[in-house]
Design goal:
Largest sheet: 2 strands, antiparallel
Strand content: 15-25%
Shape: globular
Oligomer: single chain
Order of helices and strands: HEEHHEEHHEHEH
Helix content: 25-40%
Length: about 180
């Protein structure tokens, strides 16, 4: 994917934006460069390459102004060490230091989402339950492909939250 992105760039931005696992990789950048990447991908062995309908070129160098805004905003926020490590997508590693977490959040705006590596790392550390919070179920499906023994659930509606909370033992129920 990185080779395809480099070849497609031709002086424009074309970066690997997401390594989702299961052969699913997303590139992002100038539209013409991404279109070239879609055309090149099948010649390099990709089974399928399509343009995605998105509102911006996320996770690439074109988002640098947004990263600057994120850096400024997070610089005004007091952060404490989390109760459990945060696995940062840009690092594919667990972080506990607030400064490292802040830095990873800023770098994530322009950096590659290393989802496959994140899930594999967590599964390798014994995590076997994953919850996708928000609209959709794409990540839940990817988790099942990356970590076959793991279970995943998408929580995207108030009913999902209620069902999730009710399914937990009382001592594990979050205050929602």
């Amino acid at each position: 994917a990185a080779e395809i992105a480099r070849e497609a760039a031709q002086g424009e931005v074309c970066d690997v934006a997401n390594d989702n696992g299961g052969g699913q990789v997303v590139v992002s950048g100038h539209k013409a460069a991404v279109e070239r990447a879609v055309a090149i991908a099948p010649t390099k062995g990709a089974k399928r390459a399509v343009m995605l309908t998105v509102s911006a070129p996320f996770h690439c160098a074109l988002m640098a102004p947004a990263a600057d805004t994120m850096r400024d905003a997070l610089g005004r926020v007091a952060m404490r060490a989390p109760a459990v490590p945060v696995v940062a997508n840009v690092e594919a590693a667990a972080l506990t230091d607030p400064a490292a977490i802040r830095d990873a959040l800023v770098r994530q705006v322009t950096g590659t989402v290393r989802w496959r590596e994140c899930v594999a790392s967590m599964a390798g550390q014994g995590v076997d339950r994953f919850y996708e919070i928000g609209a959709g179920k794409v990540l839940t499906g990817l988790v099942k492909r990356i970590a076959p023994g793991a279970t995943g659930a998408a929580i995207g509606t108030p009913e999902d939250v209620a069902g999730f909370k009710a399914a937990l033992p009382s001592e594990q129920r979050p205050l929602l």
